[in-house]
Write a structure and sequence with these properties.
The complex is a heterodimer. Chain A is mainly alpha-helical. Chain A has helices at residues 7-27, 31-56, 60-90. In chain B, strand 1 (58-68) and strand 2 (71-79) form a beta hairpin. In chain B, helix 5 runs antiparallel to helix 6, helix 13 (277-299) packs antiparallel against helix 14 (304-324) and helix 14 packs antiparallel against helix 15. The chains are: A mainly alpha, B mainly alpha.
């Protein structure tokens, strides 16, 4: 059954998802969208990890996926908290307005 | 024999007074300062008696100071007959002047309040270095003392450091001495190059084997050093200005001891000089020229200390005439008697200045004979001694020098005799202007305390009897090459006559007809102005040496090298860094997405590179 879907398709999907994540990160202004783009890139990487893990019949790819998921969960918790605080203080979600560290 | 105690005692006094003196009462400062010097004097006496036979030099080796390649310099002290003479002069007169200073400095206050302990600390430090100079058994150790006394001279000339003329005079003394020290250093390099050692014994043992050319060069360079320290033409200009220091300093350092270091050094190096007749001639000519020129300047000065300062320069010239004529012991003889009577003249002048609450201009003195009789009578002793009146001390030593000069060159003798007359004249002039006639100032003269006139009295006795009581030439006979002094009574009568003539002329001009001096000045206006302004030597030096040097330093070294080159490099490096930074900082936009773009470009570039070059480097 698995043989029906070639390995390159998974990797292409992963690359497309990653590229979408990068594009979203670079071109969107809303912090939440940027944040979701990061999650998208992480999951694209997860997909390639799992793919290679299956290909090479090795478990370390799975292990890294779990690590990435843990990091992503922590990041989501901290990141969302930061976003909430930023919104409370500045009433904006536009990342170009959050530049008080400049100068 | 523990020679090291002799210099170490004053050094201890310096350390104690210098470190703790601020908290000491004056009496304790006095005890430490005078005690250390007097103990040093007593130890010198003990050493002399312990030596017994003085003909073998006594050498003490303490440690190896410098060991580098073939250069081996030990910390060695040497005592022979010449050293004994110098030690007695330095510690003996040093003790007297230390005692005198108690009285002289007692009223020091104002901005220098607290300077009391500082004065005595410096004086003790001076004694230490002077004794190292005299005791050192190598040229380098002598040079240590030589530089040390120069430092103390600088510190004490500028003792009243809140007065600009005093600090200027200190700087002048220090800088002019650097010129001489440069010559001395070169002489030491040459000595080491030719003889492979700086120890007196070894150098003087090998010196006769060297070529005359080498020895002449060494001798002339040593003389450059002596010219600086002993104030000879062309480097004498610092000594008259050095009178800005307290008067005991003028007496101790700038009359009796330090300035005679050059005479001591040349006499110590007699082996080199006797094999370099050319250098000897130069010394004799410099000596007589200095003696004559300084004496003429002394004739026209009105500041009592300036008169005696030029007199010191002139008398040092006599000593070099003795050395240059080959009569080394006569030079040392005059060094000793001069130390007696010139220290006395200066201390007496200090007593006069003290009595008049700081007045130094002789035009505001006069008639002090009755008001400060002890000072007057002690100074009379110095007066007859320096004028060369027999049988007082100056007569013997000056006569010995003039006799030697006559054998060397009659021309030098005749100039010397004329200078002797001038000497008698200007000292008499100073005495008459100060003590005779009627008082022209408005202070209230008072006799100095006993602590001041007691040293004066001792020096007065020494000035009177020092000539025949201390027959230095006899004492030093074994040290120096035999010098046949022809008995020539005619020459002796001439020089004595010159002394009397000088006194008589001064008596005529300043006592019998007080207006005569002024009318003579009117008649001989041009020559008077020339000597009154010290031949404009300071002005000439200023125009030819000082100003070009200062101007050159300002334009080339300061504006050019320092401000232009060095500052330019430093500032240029800083400015280029700023320029590069101002370009690079454009990358730091503070915009997260631009950073992300750079990260993206970076990673794409990395992946492309890995693809092109076939994966990660192994």
């Amino acid at each position: 059954m698995m043989n029906a879907v070639p390995i390159s398709w998974f990797l292409t999907l992963s690359a497309v998802l990653f590229a979408l994540g990068v594009a979203g990160f670079l071109f969107r202004r809303n912090i939440i969208t940027v944040f979701m783009s990061i999650e998208l890139m992480l999951n694209a990487v997860n997909l390639s990890f799992v793919t290679f893990s299956y290909q090479h019949k090795e478990v370390s790819g799975h292990l890294f996926t779990f690590f990435v998921m843990v990091v992503a969960a922590a990041e989501a918790a901290v990141g969302l908290a930061i976003i909430l605080t930023v919104f409370k203080n500045r009433s904006t979600l536009n990342i170009d307005d959050v530049n008080s560290m400049k100068n | 024999m523990q020679l090291w105690l002799i210099p170490i005692l004053p050094l201890a006094g310096f350390l104690i007074n210098g470190i703790f003196g601020r908290r000491f009462p004056k009496s304790l400062v006095n005890t430490v300062a005078i005690g250390s010097v007097v103990l040093s004097f007593l130890w010198v006496m003990k050493t002399i008696f312990a030596m017994g036979d003085l003909n073998t030099p006594h050498l003490e080796h303490y440690f190896t100071w410098i060991q580098s390649g073939t250069l081996n310099i030990g910390c060695d002290f040497l005592v022979d007959r010449l050293t004994i003479v110098m030690l007695l002069v330095v510690t003996g007169i040093g003790s007297l002047i230390h005692i005198y200073s108690i009285g002289y400095m007692a009223h020091e206050h104002g901005p220098n309040f607290g300077g009391y302990y500082r004065f005595f600390a410096y004086l003790n430090l001076f004694m230490f270095f002077m004794l190292v100079l005299v005791l050192g058994a190598s040229f380098l150790l002598l040079f240590v003392g030589w530089e040390g006394v120069g430092l103390c001279s600088y510190l004490l000339i500028g003792f009243y450091f809140d007065k600009k003329f005093a600090t200027d005079a200190g700087n002048k003394a220090f800088i002019v001495n650097r010129v001489g020290d440069f010559g001395f250093s070169l002489a030491m390099f040459l000595i080491f190059r030719n003889f492979g050692s700086l120890d007196f014994a070894e150098v003087f043992h090998k010196a006769p084997g060297a070529t005359e050319q080498t020895l002449t060069l060494i001798g002339l360079l040593l003389m450059v050093g002596a010219c600086g320290k002993s104030a000879q033409i062309p480097l004498y200009v610092w000594l008259p200005d050095a009178m800005a220091g307290p008067t005991p300093v003028s007496a101790l350092i700038h009359a009796a001891t330090m300035v005679t270091a050059g005479v001591y050094m040349t006499a110590r190096s007699w082996v080199i000089f006797t094999h370099a007749p050319g250098a000897m001639d130069v010394i004799a000519v410099i000596g007589i020229a200095t003696a004559f020129m300084a004496a003429t300047i002394g004739v026209a000065q009105n500041d009592i200390k300036k008169v005696f300062a030029y007199s010191t320069v002139s008398q040092l010239g006599y000593m070099f005439v003795g050395i240059g004529s080959g009569a080394f012991s006569a030079g040392i003889y005059h060094l000793v008697t001069h130390a007696f009577f010139k220290a006395l003249l200066f201390l007496g002048a200090g007593s006069v200045i003290h009595a008049l609450s700081g007045e130094q201009d002789m035009r505001n003195m006069g008639g002090l004979r009755k008001k400060i009789p002890i000072t007057f009578w002690t100074m009379v002793c110095a007066w007859v001694a320096i004028s060369g009146i027999p049988p007082f001390s100056g007569f013997f030593s000056k006569d010995a020098i003039l006799l030697a000069a006559y054998q060397h060159s009659p021309a030098i003798y005749w100039i010397g005799v004329f200078t002797a007359a001038l000497t008698a004249f200007y000292v008499s002039r100073a005495m008459f202007m100060t003590f005779f006639g009627s008082y022209r100032g408005n202070a209230h003269p008072h006799e100095s305390p006993a602590v001041m006139w007691a040293p004066l009295a001792v020096l007065a006795i020494l000035s009177l009897v020092g000539g025949f009581a201390f027959p230095i030439p006899e004492f030093l006979k074994a040290m120096f090459p035999a010098f046949e002094e022809a008995e020539n009574h005619m020459l002796m009568y001439i020089s004595v006559f010159a002394g009397f003539a000088g006194i008589a002329v001064a008596y005529l001009m300043y006592v019998v007809k007080p207006g005569m001096a002024d009318s003579l000045v009117q008649t001989f206006k041009a020559p008077y102005n020339l000597v009154y302004n010290k031949y404009f030597v300071d002005e000439i030096y200023s125009a030819t040496v000082v100003r070009p040097l200062v101007g050159g330093s300002r334009i080339v070294l300061w504006k050019g090298v320092d401000a232009g080159l060095i500052d330019g490099i430093v500032n240029g490096v800083g400015a280029r860094c700023r320029d590069v930074g101002s370009v690079l900082r454009l990358l730091q936009s503070g915009n997260i997405r631009s950073y992300a773009t750079w990260v993206l470009f970076g990673s794409v570039a990395l992946i492309l590179a890995m693809g092109l070059f076939g994966g990660l480097p192994r």
